[in-house]
Amino acid sequence: MVEVLLAFLMIAIIGCMSLIGVFMISLKENTLDGILFILVAFATGTILATAIFDLIPEALHHYEELSAEGLALEENIVFMSVMLGFVVFFIMERFIYWFHGHAHESENQTVCYSGIGNTKPAELENPKNIKNFALLNLFGDGMHNFLDGIVIMVAFLTSLPLGIIITLAVIFHELPQEIGDFGILVYGGFTKKRALLFNFLSAMIALLGGLFAFILSSTVETFNLFFLAFSGGGFLFLACTELMPELLKQKDLKKSIIQVVIFLAGLFLVLGLMVILPHE
Question: For the whole model, what pTM was predicted?
Answer without folding.
Answer: 0.77
